[in-house]
Structures are given as structure tokens and as C-alpha cells.
Amino acid sequence: MFWFLRRGIASLIMLWVIVTLVFMSIHFVPGDPVELLLSQDGGSADPATVQMIREDLGLNRPIVEQYVEKLKGLASFDLGRSMVDDSSVSAEIARRLPRTLELIGLAALISLVIGIPAGIYAALHTGKSFDRAASYVAGFAQGIPVFVLGTLLILVFSQMLKLTPAGGFVAFSQAPGKHMLLLLMPSLSIGIGLAAIVFRITRASTLEVLPLDYVRTARAKGLGDRRIVLHHILRNALIPVITIFALQIGSLLGGTVLVEYVFNWPGLSGMLVSGVNARDYPTVTGVILVISALFIGLNFLVDVLYGLTDPRVRK
Amino acid sequence: MSIAETTTKPGLSISGLNISFRNKDGWTSVVRDLGFDIAPGETVAIVGESGSGKSVTALSVLGLLPQQSTRIEGSIRLGDKELLSLSPKDLKALRGNDIAMIFQEPMTSLNPTMCIGEQIAESIIAHRGISKAEARAEAIRLMEKVHIPSAARRYGEYPHQFSGGMRQRVMIAIALACKPALLIADEPTTALDVTIQAQVLNLIKELQEEEGMAVLFITHDMGVVAEVADRMVVMYRGDVVEEGTTTEIFANARHPYTKALLSAVPQLGSMSGSNDPQPFAIYDINTGLAAEASVLQSTVDTSEVLLDVKDLSVRFPVQQTIFGKVTARVHAVENVSLTLARGETLAIVGESGSGKSTTGKLITGLLHPTAGKVEICGKPMRSDTRQSLSRSVQMIFQDPFASLNPRLTVGRAITEPLRIHKLATEKEQDEIAASLLTRVGLSPEIAKRYPHEFSGGQRQRICVARTLALKPSVIIADEAVSALDVSVKAQVVNLLLELQQEMQLGFIFISHDMAVVERISHRVAVMYLGEIVEIGPRAAIFSNPVHPYTRRLIEAVPVPDPSRRSDRHKIADSEIRSPVRAGDYIVPTRTYREVSPGHLVQEVGPEWAA
Q: What's the pTM value of the predicted model, to 2 decimals?
């Protein structure tokens, strides 16, 4: 169990480093953030207003004091208030984060359900028609940009077949069916490309495991094909799949922006982009912190998964 | 029930077996007209070098060759069952049940993500359909049977927690799970240290007597054959060249290839009465006649010391607390002192983990010592002298396939050291490459070709040529001939001896193969757990081994003479201990006793009592 604790502590330290870096970034950007915010139209800012906002943000206080204040705020999940409309950044993130997570979650599920079985089947029958066809499809799915795929999905399912609305968001509590229907298309847009990646990695790593000595041992034992594939091949072949998959999911945390725009899905990425556009520091740093924390959490989860699949990691 | 079972076990009968593989040009025949029988309780060995078709034969018995690209004709019968006409389903029921197999590489033959016990139990469940709990009890019983200590506790451990020898015991337990009629052992001890090899061979014999099964033993090692086989089949490039009882063939081989193979086997003890190395007699495979081995002049010039190593130690931390305090270290090399004179060969022998390769790396400067000093030709090795000194010490490695860059031509590979040290112009380099290739017995024309076009023996010659490019005075050969077939091994050893004659090179010959060491060395150092336990003239070490570890090592070497099988000692089931020590371990002070001139033995510590 020691490895588990050690990874956990390492994750916490990493989180603290990121908090510090994000905190310092505002002091490292050239120029005064408040002046930058107020001088958007080219004119110079009114010194009185600048002073007021600086006090509001606490930028006039000593840096150590600000840092301690920031850490205190974070401990109670307070990420400050938006400079644009003075709303609570934490509340806004709390509202939007679940939407992004369910989007990524469903996309991940779709990609695993398609990618892993297809990858194994293709590897077990290399060069056969399924393998060749699947490899072409995967290449295509991986190459097509998500906004093109999303637009195509809208064209086919909303415009031509009229099965789903073209986009938008309804809370699950209001209309569960409609919520899921609306969730499905953006998830598919991400999930299909992800499935192609999962398929390729699974296929490649299965092909690597197949000729190994312990697979031959399993055959020599006279085991059934099912047992050989599930217990001897799959478990070992999954290790690289976990690595790549986690990286992909991690990059989706802040990278669903295109899909959110295409399907008008009010998620976290959209918030980050509009925050950047408005030079709204509390919003930007807040979203970045949450994404970083999730990324670290995800990596920790991957470490745990590694430990579960590969006993050699558990040291 | 068990008595009835053991008496009715069927034997294996192979006749007219032809195997071909499909490649892009059609079918290539790899085994031709093979036939032999194994009676229950009997051991037959198939012997041959790489490419002889011996492993292919073993896999064909189990139906494990890829179906689409293999053509098998003839007959393989187990009792009255014809294996070649079995359906895939019947074949599956047969594998692991009536016929079981153990493989060469115990390190990779077990699934790293499944616990040991389960890997044994799943075979039992697959064939007998008993419950998990029963299978678990049976698996523990099997682990005890193959002498795995505290079996019940180790049931849930994973392969990486087992040593190579222990993993091979697990493989044997898996193989025996369903009391097979036939056990196929494909080079089961080749990857193991000699003392462990002796234990595993004993175990297989012991279990064979208990179970009354037939054993098909595949090996290239004549010593192992003499040790275990009742009868032997000698294969050469897919053909059977000779077949008969082991005693008969060892005493009176008829086929030239068998003769060549047997004479290339170094015999421990064949060198007594001589102080200098002796080249192997090379036999012609077609005629079986020996080329006269030249008698060597003594090359040793003790007035010039090439290498002086004093109190060399290196330790690596393996475990640390979160605060960086080291709680365990590998004491890879501990207080090693040795010297090498011009024209002398010092062999360093020992088993895995003894620190012999690490010592080699420390001498070449590839690793930095924790303590101690290395002097090359009288100059101390320091960070500022390392580069210039490294020119006079060159290294040859074990694996000729991995130690040549596949993207460099042979000529470029040989002259690379010259470019690194900026010692020759492009034109000079070509000339040097050509002359070095000639020197190691290859044609200078091959300089433009790439390593993959050459066999293992040829590649090792290329590696030797590369080490000569910088005109070194010391060559460190780290298991340089261990991966080569016996006949090729003899040729490369002879080449090294010739080079020593000609250039008065000093060799540090790192090896686990006692028989080769006896052939080529002037002096021998025996290493155990990072320390030299015995060092001295070769004749003294082999005729009068004093340290218990040296004795154990020499005793464990299989003797290629079936008539001497009975006077072998039973080897205790001990494992090679690990040089990993606690962080606060204090290295005991060792003293050495001079047994005869130059023959030093470490005072035997309490761990060797009993």
C-alpha cells in the first residue's frame, strides 16, 4: 500500500506547485493587469478606477500576504469573483464543470466500448478484412477535425433525419431524456476520434504481446482462447492503452471548446475562452486551477490503475 | 489409482516428420525425415546448434507452430493417438494435460500480471474442471513438490518477485500439474547459472522417476546431454545425422558433425598440467578431421603491469525514504583488487549478481567507482584522464546482435572509435577497416555491408575488429562467447588467442562458463556477491579450489561424459544470495590467505559454515 500513499503525496505536492505558479503568473505578466483590463479600447485607464480595482483584488498588499490569502481562499474553495460581472468564479465553475465532465465521460465510454474490442479483434486477425477496414476507418476518424465531424452529425441527425435538436443544453433534472439526447451528439463527436486512437493503441499493443513467451506458455497449458485473450493478452496489452488514454482525456479537460461551440454546450472550456477574451484574471486562473487539479487527479487515478494491472509497479 | 495411471502412460513415437515454413519465395524445409521413439520413463535429447530444427520439432509435437505458415507431414503419435490429425479442440485438451512443455527463458515465460499460484492453478482447472479452492490446494502442493520454499505464502506473489531458478521451478510445476505422459524441455537451463542449472536438472530427473513420464530434452549443451539423456538424436540443419544411446555416441561418434560438436565442447580438467591457454582444435564439419591446434608461446610479461585495480567498490542505492535517506544498497562491487600484466588473460568468473560485469565497466570507466582506484599502464584513471585512458581499454560484449548499430555499415562501425577520438582521416579509416577485417578472418569487401547480413559468429568478429581499431593494450571481453554456438565459440576463442600472441594484449575475460575459462586464461578471479573470494593462477584454482564457493561452482559444471554421471554430488537447493544490503550495513573486513604462490583465498566467513 506504500506506493499508493507515496503517489498520493506526490500529487498533493504537484498541486501546490501549480497553485503557486498560477498565483505568480499574474505578477509575472508584463504591465499591470488592472491597467490592461481597463485599457481595452486603447485609451489610458482612469487612475482612480485602477486603484479601486487593485484594492478590490488585493493587488496593493504585500505579495506574501496575497499568497497566504489565496491559499486560504482555495482551502475553502473560494476562487475569487469575476472582474466582469462580480459573480463568484467558484459557483460558475461548479455549474459548468459537471457538464464538461459528463461530456468527456460519455465520450470516453464510447471510445473504450468501440476501441478496445475492435483493437483486440483486429490484432487477433491481422491482415484480414476486418483489420484492414477498421484501420482505414480509424485513420479517417482520427484525421477528421471535431468541428467538421460535429457539423456533419448535425447535418445528418438534426437536419436530415430530424432525430435530435441541433444543439443546446437542458438540465438533467428538468428533462432527463432530452438532456441525454443533447449530450449524445457532442459526445459522439469527441468519442469517435478518441475511439480511433484507442483502437490503434490496443491493436498495436496486443500485437506486441501476442508473440511473447508467456502467451506461448498459456497455449502450451492448453487453455481456452477466451481465457488466453482475457487473462494473458488483454491485461498486459492494456498498460500502454491506459497511458495514452489518460493523456487524451487530460487534454480534453480544457480542449472541448470547439465541440462546446458547435453544439452550444455551456461547459468549462467556453468559460475559459471567454475569460481570456475579457482578460478576466480570476476566471482564467480559477478555471486553470480546476483543470490542473483534475489533471493531477486523473494522473493519480492512472497510477492506481497501473498498480492494479501491473504488480511490478506496486513497490 | 495412481499406480494404474503411472503404468499405463503412453510413449511418444515420431516417424517421417517433415516440417516446412512458408516465406515469400515458397516453402523452406526446416526438418527432414525425423524419426525417434521415447518410451515412458525414458529421456531422449535432441542436440544441435541454432538452426538445426530442434525447437521447431518440439513445438510441432504440441501443435504450437503457426498454422497458416507451416506444413507438417509424417506422424507424431502419443500412445495410439495420432497428434497431427487431432482437431484444434482435442489438441487443446491434450496440451498441458498429456504433453507439457517448459521453455528456455524463465524470465519471460510467465505472465507478469498474474500471480504465480494462479498460473499453476489455471492449468489444473482447465483440464480437470475442479473448483478454485481445490485447484489452489493442488497448486500449493505442486509448488512444494518442486521445492519452492514456503509455497503457501508465495502463492499470491508475482513472477518479478521470483529469481530465474525459482521461476523455472514454477514452470515445471505448471508442466507437471496434470501428470503429463510426456514432458518437453526446450533448453530449460540455458539461461540459468550453473549451480541453479544443476538443481533444476536434478529436479527434472527426480520428478521423472516419480511420475514415470517420458522426457524430450532439447539442448545445445553436451554437458547437459551427458547428464540427463538415455538416448540422443543429433540434428544438423534439419537432418538427423546421428542417433543412439548417449554412452555409445559419446564414446564412439560416427558422423563427422557429431565428432566436431563433441570435440568443440570444452572439458573441465582437460587442461591440467599446463599453465598457458590452449586453442581449440577446429574440426571440419564435413570430414570430421581436426586441424592441428597450434601450440602457443607464453605471452605473459610480468615486468609490465597494464592494469592495477585497488580496493574498487561501487554501490547503488535501491531504496530510499521520502526524505532521501538510503535504506538499501546494492553492493555491486566491494573492495576488488587485481592486476593484469602484458600479454596475460585474467578470467573473472561468477554467477549472476556477482559483480563481474560491473567490475569490467568500472575498469573501462563506463561507471564511476564509489571508492578505490584504477590505474591503466601506470596512469591513474580520473575524470580528466578518462577519455585518453579509455583508448587503451576496449570492450567486447555478449550479444553480437545488439552491440552493432544496424544503421552503420560494418566499416563505419569498426572505424567509429577513430572518429570519436579524431585519429584518422576518411581515407585512412577505409584502409584501417579493411586491414582489421582481414585480421579477424573476414573479407575486407564486407566493409560496405550492414550487420544484419551476418551470422552471430561473424558479428562477434566484427566487434573484435572494432575493439582493435584504437590499438588497445587491454581488452575486456564480457561474456563475449557465451551466446555463440559451440563450434563458433571455439573459433572466436582461437581468434582472441591469436591476437594475444601477435599483439601481447591483456585480456579480462568475464564469463560464467568455467570450461571456456579453463581453456583460455592464465589467471582466474572468482567473484561472489561483489567480492573476490579466490584469485590465482588458473592451474591452481582448478586443481586446488579452496573457497567453498569456488568448489561449488566447479562441481556444478555438467561434465560432457555420461560415464562420470554417477559420481556427481547432489547439489543443495540453495539460491544465489542477493548483494542488496540494508542502508546501515557495515562491510566486514576481509583477509586473504596465500595458499600457494599468487593463489589468494578469502578467509571463509561464518555464512559458509555447515
A: 0.81
